[in-house]
Specification:
mainly alpha, 18 helices, 3-stranded antiparallel beta sheet, single chain
Length: about 425
């Protein structure tokens, strides 16, 4: 069907070609066959040919349902619902493609979990590396920033620079996007200035990232905590930054631009930067030796206590629980762990809030000689893999479906022209 021809008329037992079905559904031809494999559409082989045909009424019904599900509300508070097969959060646990995420992070590296999230395949021993040309471009761009630039500033600039150097960035096929992801993540890490003098970029992504967060040599237990943190933070359903990524991908922005959109949202104090606030809180508790006066000062100033509570969990954040268990095996983390427990216990007198992953990240960063911004860096690097997974999923959906309607509440027209 040519671009200028009208959409097919769905009458009788008319059958549609793959291209016609894809256009009616607003998806790629590959997605049409994915619908078939899921049992949402039936197909019939063309006699003597290689293609398939689809029942027009069936396609129309699926198109109506997709439009209703992607553009409607969740039925609770008018929130936007987006179908996804990536992460499920249920009963104080969360799952990646149906597998318990905390168990995955305990048994597999960050890179392996990223591949699992992207492809549904577990590839033991997977590591990410970036070509020297990509790293050099990103480093030059990052080095041009002022010293006070935040980690997220650096990561966002690195992503933009890497995009500008990639002439194939507009190829949104799955293989191309996966190739971009496997290069972009290590490029982001390599673009950050190293803290340890004489460090060589070798080993796992966690090892390379550690050298950019702490001047201390990393022991095996510490690297395990960092790698586990990266794996636990890969994705967390439709957090604000992830929604921004899906909006960008819905408009068919390339993967670098989609990641840049996520990084822009991540910098907010209520999202990726929250662990930095918890880090400073722990340092204050460690300095004073008691959480009581520190919590009192926070409440007196009208601030919420960072590192506590999560709207998706009634009990303790499972990510925090997993990290605390590993941190207990590191002797130097004991003072920060005790300070964190003091914060939780002191605050519980006022309101029973449990520790979240930001508090656990704060214990890791405060006990490892890392700056307060380190948690934000860990969060951003980790979540990049999840953003890529969501972008890939969105590229298979109808373009521009992430377009809610505005509810105008301004002055009723017509109004006189302003003088």
């Amino acid at each position: 069907m040519r671009d200028h021809e009208p959409a097919p008329s769905l009458h009788g037992d008319r059958r549609l070609s793959t291209k016609e079905a894809a256009e009616l559904l607003g998806v790629k031809p590959e997605t049409v066959y994915a619908y078939v494999s899921r049992g949402q559409l039936s197909s019939r082989r063309v006699p003597g040919g290689r293609g398939s045909t689809f029942d027009a009424k069936e396609v129309e019904t699926l198109a109506r349902r997709n439009k209703r599900e992607s553009g409607g509300s969740s039925g609770s508070g008018g929130e936007l619902s987006v179908r996804t097969r990536i992460t499920l959060i249920d009963a104080d646990r969360y799952y990646f493609r149906g597998v318990d995420a905390t168990e995955l992070a305990a048994r597999h590296s960050y890179e392996e979990i990223a591949e699992w999230l992207w492809t549904g395949r577990m590839l033991p021993g997977t590591t990410f590396s970036a070509p020297d040309t990509s790293v050099a471009v990103a480093r030059r761009a990052v080095d041009s920033l002022p010293e006070h630039a935040s980690p997220t500033d650096r990561l966002r600039v690195a992503a933009i620079a890497a995009a500008a150097a990639d002439p194939l960035r507009f190829d949104l096929s799955e293989d191309a996007v996966l190739g971009t992801a496997r290069v972009l993540i290590p490029t982001l890490v390599a673009a950050l200035p190293p803290v340890r003098i004489g460090h060589r970029d070798e080993g796992s992504l966690a090892e390379r990232l550690w050298a950019r967060l702490s001047a201390r040599a990393a022991d095996e237990a510490s690297l395990r905590v960092l790698d586990t943190a990266l794996g636990l933070l890969v994705d967390h359903d439709l957090a604000a930054s992830t929604l921004a990524v899906r909006v960008a991908a819905s408009a068919r922005a390339h993967a670098y631009a989609a990641v840049s959109a996520g990084l822009g949202v991540l910098e907010g104090p209520l999202h990726g930067a929250a662990s930095g606030l918890a880090h400073r809180l722990l340092n204050d508790v460690l300095e004073q030796g008691d959480a009581g006066p520190v919590i009192a000062d926070e409440l007196r100033a009208g601030r919420r206590i960072p590192g506590l509570g999560h709207r998706l969990y009634h009990g303790e954040d499972p990510r925090a629980r997993a990290l605390f268990a590993l941190l207990e095996e590191i002797p130097r983390a004991e003072p920060a762990l005790l300070a964190a427990r003091d914060v939780v216990a002191t605050t519980a007198r006022h309101t029973p809030l449990h520790a979240n992953v930001d508090l656990a990240l704060a214990v890791l960063t405060a006990s490892s000689g890392m700056p307060a911004t380190a948690g934000e860096t860990i969060f951003a690097v980790a979540r990049t893999a999840g953003w890529i997974a969501h972008a890939l999923e969105e590229y298979g959906e109808r373009p521009l479906r992430m377009r809610p309607s505005g509810l105008y509440v301004g002055a009723k027209p017509p109004q006189p022209l302003p003088e």
